[in-house]
Amino acid sequence: MVNKRKDLIKKIFAKVAIYFVLLLMYAPLIYITVFSFTKVKTTGVWNGFNLSNYTDLFNAKNKTAQAIWKAAGNTMLVAIVAGLISTVLGTFGAIGIHNIRNRHLKSSLNFVTQIPIVNAEIVTAVSLLVLFAFFKNTFGINKNFMTLVIGHVVLTLPYVVISVIPKLEQMDPSLYEAALDLGATRTQALWKVIIPEIVPGILTGFMLSVTLSLDDFVITEFTKPESGNFETISIYVDNQLSKSGIPQQMRAFTAILFAVILIVMVGMFVKTRIDNNRLKASSYKGD
Amino acid sequence: MEEAIGRKKRGFAFNFRASLCIPFGVFMALFVVLPLFIIVYYAFRDGDGGFTFQNWASLFADGENSKVNWGIIGMTFVIAASTTIICILIAYPIAYLLANKKYNKNKVLVYIFLLPMWINFVIRTIGLKELLNSLTSVLFDWDITSEHPYISIVIGMVYDYLPFAILPLYNQMLKLDKSQIEAAADLGANPAQVFMKAIVPQTIPGIVSAAMMTFMPTMSSYVIADKMSENSKFIIGSLIQGYFIKRTDDVSSNIGSVLSLVMLMIVGVSMLAQKAFDKKTEERKGNLW
Q1: Chain A CB contacts of B124 below 8 Å
Q2: Which of 1.10.40.30, 3.30.830.10, 3.30.420.40, 1.10.3720.10 would CATH assign to domain B66-284?
Q3: pLDDT at B133 over 90
Q4: C-alpha distance from B64 to closest chain A C-alpha (Å)
Q5: Which residues of B120-159 are buried (b: 16+ CB within 10 A; e: fewer)?
Q6: Would you say A121 and B46 are in contact if contact means Cβ atoms under 8 Å apart?
Q7: What whole-number distance in Å separates Cα of residue A234 and Cα of residue A129?
Q8: A-proximal residues of B, 43-102, CB under 8 Å
Q9: Among candidates A17, A112, A276 on the partner chain, residue whose Cβ is nearest the Cβ of B32
Q10: A223 vs A225: CA distance, rounded Å
């Protein structure tokens, strides 16, 4: 009885601690969302409920809204292109590294994979800048969309590799050999045996890539195209901040993103609930 | 032996699966390793391409300028160290609770800590700054970003890097050997002793990894420092960015390279330090699904 009560107190205390820190983590987003419903230049003063930020954001003629959506589109484009390239390069890279027998080669590849993860992002960015400056001087190639994508691939590629390798380690090594013995070609064995086994790792790597790329500022600032005023969301926000302050429509945009995230979150809760119940049901049957 | 037979049977001498990493290796060599060598090269060249130590001297041993630079470097360490300590102090108990099935039945809570990362960190940081500004002006009559820029910077850094501290600690906590903790309690250790002697020693790799994940980026993330101090205070990252983006005389990129090289050495030293501890990379291996 006493123990039960002690457990309950412990549980309440733990929940309060977790949700308190969560609240702190979400506070800035909640704050932005609240002030997205009022028409003021800067946050902090409430000026009556107003949806004009939202109507402006979806007004095709609104210049600011156009700029925001364009930046959002660019951000997604870079994240997805870089994410796909990283996922392909990184998946095959991981399979390769996993199967290398030469210990020195293996450990040096592992070391190189760690570099962009551990290295300060500014150093990675600067090193790419000097490389691209070298390209410009010798081949006359200006920084363009591809250099930006390369920058983001450098940033995200290692995360794909470290997401895929554990799945390879969990895999039964004789499966591939068995497929070969049963007459599969090496390519068939690769696509029909290895790849399906490591799909969860590949998906994790892709999601991590996209997440990191969406969030990036530093690499983008140093590798973005020189001409055409190419802006991602972070570059756009930074530029606006130094010019005239962040436009109000940006708050509405952030609030919408936040809402999407909340929906995903609730979806995840519900899905795990259902999965758990199903698991319970099936385990009862198993008994 | 089996391998040899296999080779003979299929008639190929090269390792097909290993060869798959060639594109990856070429990419990494070209865009990760080579650029770092260019940085090292630049750090010892003058404007005309001759060998020199002048870049180092003008940064670290040249009167007023070097005093400012040393000040910034020192302050960067203070900011990074306080951020790391605060992050671990908050993340440690949270990770412990999250790893406990009683409080977090199905990993979902962990993802909820990571979800804000889907919103751009520049926006989040500015949101935090505006929130802090209005909170502190109401509560303490402070204008925190201009009156206490360093406090504001550390708050911003902790806010942005806390998830990176929680994740490795959480992964470490999942592997806690429960029987060891119970044994300690059964043998008469009080809760504080159990914590210090049975729990903490088991989680040291996680602590080291969390510290790396917060300390290193904190030193270089000039965006947070700029935004949280309204461009009034600089860290090493801001110095480097300034040399490459804002200044345009012909040695500024060489001086910037020197600073990048210094950062690189700090990274190298901390990597070695981490290796000295248990080199288990498992903490960082993402496992979303």
Answers
A1: 28-29
A2: 1.10.3720.10
A3: no
A4: 25
A5: bbbbbbbbbbbbbbbebeeeeebebbeebbebbbbbbbbb
A6: no
A7: 19
A8: 90, 93-94, 97-98, 100, 102
A9: A112
A10: 7
Spatial CA neighbour of B206 closest among B183, B161, B179, B174: B174
How close, in Å, is residue B62 to chain A by CA atoms?
24
Instruction: At B275, give phi and psi (nearest 5°).
Output: -65, -35
Pairwise CA distance, residues B189 & B116, whole Å: 40
Instruction: Establish if B21 touches chain A: CB-CB under 8 angstroms.
Output: yes
Count Cβ atoms below 10 Å from residue A67 Cβ, excluding itself.
Answer: 18
CB contact under 8 A, A130 and B220: no
Q: Domain extents for chain B?
A: 66-284
Q: Shortest CA distance to B114 belongs to which of A85, A197, A25?
A: A25
Structure tokens at A124: 């990675």
CATH code for the part of the protein at A70-254:
1.10.3720.10
Of the partner residues A25, A127, A190, the one whose CB lies closest to the CB of residue B39: A127
**pLDDT at site B248:** 61
In eight-state DSSP terms, residue B49 is: S
Do B25 and A109 make contact, defined as CB atoms within 8 angstroms? yes
Q: What is the pLDDT along chain A (287 residues), one digit of tens a residue?
A: 567 787 788 888 888 888 888 888 888 888 888 888 887 777 777 777 877 788 878 877 888 888 888 999 999 999 999 999 999 999 999 999 998 888 888 888 988 998 888 888 889 999 999 898 888 888 888 888 899 999 999 999 999 999 999 888 888 888 888 888 898 888 888 888 888 888 888 998 999 899 889 888 899 988 988 877 888 888 898 888 887 777 888 888 889 988 988 888 788 778 877 877 777 777 665 44
Q: What phi and psi, each to the nearest 5 degrees, are found at residue A38? A: -140, 155
Burial group, residue B190, by CB count within 10 angstroms (0-12, 13-18, 19+):
exposed
For residue A256, give the nearest of A25, A61, A57 by alpha carbon.
A57
DSSP secondary structure, A45-92, as one string: S---B--HHHHHHT-TT-HHHHHHHHHHHHHHHHHHHHHHHHHHHHHH
Is B24 in contact with A161 (Cβ distance < 8 A)? Answer: yes
Nearest CA among A269, A258, A254, A232 for reference residue B115: A258
CA A119 to chain centre: 18
Give yes or no for B109 touching A (CB within 8 A).
Answer: yes
Facing B122 at nearest CB: one of A99, A153, A234: A234
Q: Helix, strand, or coil here: B45? A: strand
**Torsion, Cα of A164, A270, A211, A29 (10° steps):** -150
Do A265 and B240 make contact, defined as CB atoms within 8 angstroms?
A: no
Residue found by looking up tokens 């045996």 in the block: A193
Give the C-alpha separation, A57 to B153, whole Å.
31
CB contact under 8 A, A203 and B289: yes
